[in-house]
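Hi there, hope your week has been kind to you so far. Do you reckon you could talk me through the fold, stretch by stretch? I've dropped the whole record in just underneath, so have a look:
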Amino acid sequence: MLTIAVCDDNPQFANQLIKKIRELCAYHLPDRIDCRITPAFGSGEDVLRYVKSHVINIMFLDIDMPKINGFRLASELKEKTPDTIIIFVSAYDDFVYSSFEYAPFRFLRKSHLEEELPVTFKKVIEKCISDEEALLFETTDGDTLLRLRDIMYFEGEKNYYVIKMTSGKEYRCRGTMTSVEERVKPYDFFRVHSAYIVNEEHIENIHEDGYLGMKNGALINISRRKLVAFKESYMQFTRRRFAK
């Protein structure tokens, strides 16, 4: 079940947005996905009360709200429910630059809702589907099904490789990094070094001295001969991720 929510202190706009989302769900959502749209939330406080006992998968969030504004609410949601996908919605284009700090999936302009919402809806549904992609790995503890989005990176160790998860858990598998590279090639992974295959989704920053900073704090060396190809791959990834 996919739960979609809207938070906006303007009830008229919130209901208008919900109506459009319902139409998109009815006509464009794959049959295998069940969707639930919550009643509109009028404040950040209402959202925080709700997520104490419910899951929100996709949150369309106004920025300019009293008391708890959209940025503060997004920050709290990232802490309390990190899997919630945030889409900022605002009448003020200037907010787009300030919003990057909160790593939203997209930024929608209220004045361009008709053309921007369908594209954003398609992209966010694609993300939800890809987020559930999983592969079976033969670990030293037995066969384990791992969700690809939860894998931070792979690290090679002679005839073994270690799977580093976002949770901090590690799985050890017998096999080569080349075999892993082939398996994850259709997804957003890149072999930046003979010993490392990284999930591009979890890259925090790229250092000028040839290192990647991952979201778990790890620093990973980029092979000099792979640097150009990696930068091209990562550019394509960010375009897919943020393209309008």
About this structure: The first strand starts at residue 2 and ends at 7.
